Amino acid sequence: MFPYKTSFQLLRNLNTPLYLQLSNQFIELIKSHKIPPETKLPSSRSLSELLGVHRKTVVACYDELMLQGWVDSIPKKGTYVKASLPILTQQEFLEEDSVLSNEANFKFSKNENFNKKRVNTDESWVLVDDGISDVRLTPLKDIARTYRRLCDRKRTIKSLSYGETFGSGKLRKVLASYLNKTRGLQYTEENILITRGSQMGIFLASKLLLEKDDIIVVGETNYIAADVTFSERTDRILRVPVDEDGIKTDDLEQLCKRKQIKAVYVTSHHHHPTTVTLSAERRIHLLNLAKEYRFAIVEDDYDYDFNYNHAPILPLASHDTQGNVVYIGSICKTVAPVFRIGYLIGPKDFVEEASRVRRYVDRQGDALLELTFADFIESGDLDRHIKKTLKTYQQRRDFFCEQFQQELCDYFEFDIPKGGMAVWVKLKSPYTWKEVSEVAKKYKLELGEWQRYDVSRTGHNAIRIGFASKNEEEIEELVMCFKKTFQEISLKTSSVKSFVR
Amino acid sequence: MFPYKTSFQLLRNLNTPLYLQLSNQFIELIKSHKIPPETKLPSSRSLSELLGVHRKTVVACYDELMLQGWVDSIPKKGTYVKASLPILTQQEFLEEDSVLSNEANFKFSKNENFNKKRVNTDESWVLVDDGISDVRLTPLKDIARTYRRLCDRKRTIKSLSYGETFGSGKLRKVLASYLNKTRGLQYTEENILITRGSQMGIFLASKLLLEKDDIIVVGETNYIAADVTFSERTDRILRVPVDEDGIKTDDLEQLCKRKQIKAVYVTSHHHHPTTVTLSAERRIHLLNLAKEYRFAIVEDDYDYDFNYNHAPILPLASHDTQGNVVYIGSICKTVAPVFRIGYLIGPKDFVEEASRVRRYVDRQGDALLELTFADFIESGDLDRHIKKTLKTYQQRRDFFCEQFQQELCDYFEFDIPKGGMAVWVKLKSPYTWKEVSEVAKKYKLELGEWQRYDVSRTGHNAIRIGFASKNEEEIEELVMCFKKTFQEISLKTSSVKSFVR
After folding, report:
1. With respect to CATH, is domain A4-81 assigned 1.10.10.10?
2. DSSP designation for A283
3. What is the pTM (predicted TM-score) of this model?
4. Mean pLDDT, residues B85-92
């Protein structure tokens, strides 16, 4: 007989009831054919005696096994392991306790474009970011209070179930009115799809606009995450040069004459990564080209709120009279990245189709968070928050640029950005970012993914360095780290030189 | 001279400062060439007199126009509209106030598979759902309290910035331990990607597993949203029959011998839509086939928690020793759909790639909500909630089945489901759902998307009717609506019959 007495381990102090522990262990033994098909199990009385458990426990266990389909109970004869159960094949060489779930036993596609580099995020290190907000300024308590107040309201219950893929009707209405007022747009809520942030907007636009072999045009330097997103859909990403007035629309026009362009992606307010603003002249030119050649302009307005020298420049979408612009933005940069609320705005038919696609990606957004932010915007809290942070970020930009100019002008050159959260910093010859990033590690300075800025290998030798996330003390620390890094590099170089002499 | 005096509308009680109102209106006039390129603008003194505003306002406006690139200021000569500005072309026939943003002026793809039917969601109507939870049972206050307490903690600030695409490390750890304990799995947190819910899991798995022309196998009745998701990737969705023991794995084996299968999608716990459970025998058979033919099993365990007759049946993933199973689930059904937290679990290499794809869809999840639910699970609140709702849903299932049997047995037949939130209800001949759904409208009964259950047109004549979301009173109301509907149909039929006689 099977060694029932020694084959089970039952623990009385577990959450799992005894009968379930017993049946689960039975299943393992049956699966592996240690108790083979057609085996007659001991009677409940004898097994309960063998194991020293109550007979009811064994009866419950056998019931469970029967309901789950592992055994048959034949009246007046007893309980039998099902006859037809196949054995669960195991690879012989596997050790009992080896981790079995490292590698898939099936094929799946891997995209080499996806960045796999892990960036050091050790808190004792100084990190160079590409322009992110300072989350310490987030009005978290206000938001949490609004959230909780909302949860206390009776009618909130309705919002807990499945809802519109478009997002909360309230937030769409509030956003339409807010964006129309602050950005000169003329949309209604029906033009708005609430997304999880700009990235989802780019993803959805890319999915709808690009089929294999379709052409999308971007700047010769471009926001890398957008590049990767487009590359998932098409191999034909064409690049036009970018100068101090943004992407060169004359070059785009030449392209349009020769090829059929499906879409143009622009970060018109502050070009990513170089931070320049698309000039008024080129804005109009771009819009006219879109109308004539019937392509979509995907306008990613990722940092509209942060302008230090003048009022924000109205987006292309505010001049779009023919339905050529798909306007993408989010509050992630303005409030905090953790609040994943963004929007995709455009012609109604496009937005409707985008919401259908979104349904099969992510069903719907977080209605509670969306309602919280509808409140946050409507009450004027968002505006007050922007005003406050704008002032802080402007001071940080000034301090950052001053410090970099004073302390690091031998190594870096840059223009003072008119807005945004980062400076486009060019490394002077003969330095290379590769060397700088390596030496920097000694001084606990992490340069992050500096390689990503020169996708088309033009050798511009610049990267973005964010200033908004750092207070003055932290900016000084950053400068100090860079200084030490360059001093060490210079020392090495000069010692090599003197050695060569 | 241009009629400056009558061309501007300045309102002192707006949020927008006067100088910005003025410059925005200037931009409109310049864009449309109403003030043509090279026009000399009036001096600030004369314009301020013309408009009755302070001279400083005009100076600020001209500065703004210059900074934005619309005008040039030439020392000692004055302010001129830029020479090179192209005119923004407008279609002549457009009325001033027509809505311009209904139709895109570019092409984009539309997927005919995406359901476009709008379902009546009027609250005075009785809605048939396909098995959703009752959001009135959501422990919303507890969750909101946890959320707010979390926001009050200082170290929460770190979680506000960009984070891991995999999701909160804390939640991954808590989930691994919770799922291992409750579902017999053997995963570590590195096998877990936090998603926005099951749908995102299906989307990501589909994206990674299926290239054009790859074969995925599903049940002959199948969860429609999964079908649509797969159809976005491949045209080759093959179907095997489903009986009372779930999908027929013998048929699958025949398929495997003839064709290369990339993946099999199963809702093994309760087959969607028919609610049957995959038998133990077929579970082992399916796993053995996956090993032998090296395909992925995408196991969508959407309502594991809801079993009324016996303990939940352990998922296929709990028997997966070779890395063949991709396990998908969520708390959306268990707690409330608004809390968009789910998981995709599988071999490490697969999960890593899935997180890379997810980055370009949605960057990352909501760390605050993820931490909230880590707390909710760890504290035992989730278990308590499940216990409580399980009892309620069981009572509702029993009441629903009793009522339907008593009152509607002339029209419907069904088996009592062992778990889940819905009954698979077959309409008796000669009735058709089309007629029923139309007549039902008279009695304010909305049958929803009943067409979607018979995708491969087998004529099974059944739909899912959810019971979990309705209390006894509401179930009675539902029964009453159906009764009236059938009475009217019968009356019509008999009057036709008597007319024919």
Report:
1. yes
2. H
3. 0.90
4. 70
